[in-house]
Amino acid sequence: MGRIIVVTGANSGIGKKAAHRLAGEGHTVVMACRSVERAEEARRAIVEETGNEQVDVMELDTSSVDSIRSFAGRFRERYPRLDTLIHNAAYFNHGEAYRLGPDGTEITFATNVVGPFLLTRLLLESLKASADPRVLNAGSNIIKHFFDPKMQLDFGTLRGLPVGVEEPSVYRRYCRSKMALLMLTFALARELESDGIAVNYLHINGARMSKQTIAKFSLKFRVIARVQNLFLRSVAYMANNYVELAAGERFRGVTGVCFNDRLEAMAPGNSETARGLDQLRFGLGRGHYPWRADDRGLQERVRSICEELSAGAPTAA
Q1: Closest CA to 127 of 56, 75, 55
Q2: At CA 20, angle to CA 244 and CA 39, rounded to 5?
Q3: Which residue in the list 174, 201, 242, 289 is annotated as catalytic?
Q4: How confident is the model at residue 212 (pLDDT cuts 50, 70, 90)?
Q5: Closest Cα to residue 266, out of 310, 205, 313?
Q6: Containing domain of residue 176, as a range?
């Protein structure tokens, strides 16, 4: 029997390709997207090319608590269970100034961390109804900046810029969000293990950006993105990894793992104690993630912040 799989941000890029692959394998796919119009266009193409009519579009803006709550309610009414939840949607707008999302939380953190946390929470009962429930968080190799001991996981600008505090760059905001998502993955994997829900993180080391994505960037960053695309793998490469982790039998029951693009389990690497070639290997290799992601105190801090922000309450710096 096919699985029921939700893919957020499935109207372009890796998410769209993964939705196509999953539909082609006979699964029921729910494309949870902010732009229903673009998602419907993608859905029609997927149905036509795969012959699978069990592809649905549901509106979801993962930066908005109200939108997430509405989506979760509609999903529970429509589907008897949820087998895999893929948190693919992400916010990263090259060259954009700092701004807050609809609930007053910095837009990148709201979309990439708080949104996945809340959506997972609201769909727990649907996941528990599955015989093999899985949650997959889409990460990024940008977290390797945290191999630098000077790089801090700053939470002081999540609800606005305090007086005298410099605006964090778009890269720092995105890096912060993906490191926090890895920590949240580990925290939720421990919490949900007793319910049989597997929670994992896929370390994405780049994929070609779509024309729609590049069009959102400022002129300078559009040029940079087009050059980067010349050296990046197609979205199909990482979409295949989504499919394996979402539905592959060999990953049944596997939880609390940070996977690289080869679907190998990554290990923590401590650049503060490493020397010479080890430091280079941590930064350039695909075998390690920053050891600070294993800090349970920070993991619980991230979860606590997500609980507060998803309830609409501000959090202390």
Answers
A1: 75
A2: 125
A3: 174
A4: low
A5: 205
A6: 4-208+235-310
User: Which residues, other chains included, contact 102 with Cβ-Cβ below 8 Å and sequence gap of 6+?
Assistant: 61, 63, 64, 65, 66
CA–CA separation, 19 vs 7, rounded Å? 7
* Tens digits of residue pLDDT in 127-174: 999 999 999 999 999 999 898 888 888 899 999 988 678 888 888 999
* 36-40, 71-75, 202-206, 288-292: segment of lowest average pLDDT: 202-206
Whether 317 is covered by a domain: the verdict is no
H helices present in 3-99, as ranges: 13-24, 36-50, 65-78
The verdict on residue 93 lying in a domain is yes
Query: Considering the domain boundaries, does residue 217 fall inside one?
Result: no
pLDDT value for 205: 76
Report the CATH number that the domain containing residue 283 is assigned in CATH.
3.40.50.720
What is the reported pLDDT for 162?
84
Both structure tokens of 288: 């390690």
As for how many domains the chain has, the answer is 1
Asked whether residue 36 is assigned to any structural domain, the reply reads yes
Q: Which residues contact 280 (CB under 8 A, 6 or more apart)?
A: none
% of the chain exceeding 90 in pLDDT:
71
Q: Would you call 171 a catalytic residue per the annotation?
A: no
